[in-house]
Please model this.
Amino acid sequence: MMLPTRLDNPQGLPARVARKALRLAAHIGAFAAALALVVQPAAAQQKRPNIIRDVEIETLLRDYMRPIWAAAGLGQQNIRVVLIADPSFNAFVMDGKRIFVNTGALMQSETPNEIIGVLAHETGHIAGGHLARMRQQMESAQTIAIAAMLLAIGGVAATAGSNNVGGNPAGLIAGPQEMIRRSLLAYQRGEEQSADRAAVSYLTATKQSPRGMVKTFERFQNDQIFISQRVDPYVLSHPMARERIAALEDLAAKSPYLNVKDPPALQARHDMMRAKLVGFTERGDTIARRYPLSDNSLPARYARAISTYRFGNVQEGVRQIDALIAEQPGNPYFYELKGQALLEAGRARDATAPLRKASELTGGNPLIRTMLGQSLVESGDKASTDEAIRELNFGLQRDSSSSSSWRYLATAYGQKGDIPNADLASAQSAFYGGDYKLARELAGRARQKFPLGSPGWLKADDIVNFKPPNMPVRSQ
Ligand SMILES: [Zn+2]
Model:
């Protein structure tokens, strides 16, 4: 698990709107990053929503959803499930390409079926074409507030009752929430029911039970929820009207697959995912309570190994990870974890071998190759510089938005004495980190060093000429 990425435009909103929403969220002081797996300090990003990239979880969610997307006629659409580091329950779509899901929703779902059902419902929104209208709504000032709420409330709920930072988030919610509730109810009621029906049809087509979806939605059915401070954002985006749940229950009762259970292998992977998320995001005592020493299951040992290294005992953590590897020598994610633990402990040279193995076992997954590239840079071994550049570029070709990867690439070029490319990579790093002024400066410097019209010159020139979108400064 690695590389929390700043969420520049989380929902495909028009950039201006998203930025305003993000500003507001940051203003509220929500979204303290829940991640303990920050490879580099990211102080400036602490109050922004963070995307988690994790190969094991992304692969599992893709395996969950592939049959559902095929049943929805979206098999060719290349949809991605994007993980947001947030302990509250949420899942939403705002474009046709990405379904966002909070880590909280994954941690709270006991079975694959529960999360598959929720994501099948989101798929129903995509297939039903509910998004174009939603985007129109997003243009209005009112929905800017909604977007901000959806983004912000998770973090607020997590801090409500404790010492809040940045003012009075609870007060800020109380005002607009009735307005938001009415607005959402008005324009979403029909679409929610249609997404429910679609979801049940996808589950039926794939011979899966609708029970998990019903169970999850029933949990959120609570008219009192809007006068509570602890509101899960999912409830705001998905009003759980009594009639809606009743209609869904009727529909589900008719499913011939109501009592079908998830395949044991899928449940096992689900349990590992939850253990990993708990291990990486919860406090030490919470992890110990949830996975006590008396629990010798693989997920429990996974969570404890992560917790052990995270909270400073790297030696013992690595020993526990080695025991996991001994038990499942073909599991790439144990090697990845070992590499990450060593990398974060400043032992980059030791991290390289397990990361190479993880890369090999995943057929060269770009995220793992990126981490391998980082470890090669950090190990400072001149002989590995070309390999480091190759690995980092491989990852960046697939996802160019990782500011930290660009920074590592800049270091690698620097180690090689390739100053134009080092400057260009530094400019990219600043650019994707949102510091356009610094990016322009660095790109200007790089541009002078490349031959006129060369690929490097063109890339630098693009950054120099980039016009950052206007950011209205007024907050509400
Ligand atoms: Zn919905």
Notes: The chain is about 65% helix and 5% strand. The beta strands are 2-6, 50-53, 80-84, 91-93, 98-102. The CA atoms of residues 87 and 104 lie 4 Å apart.
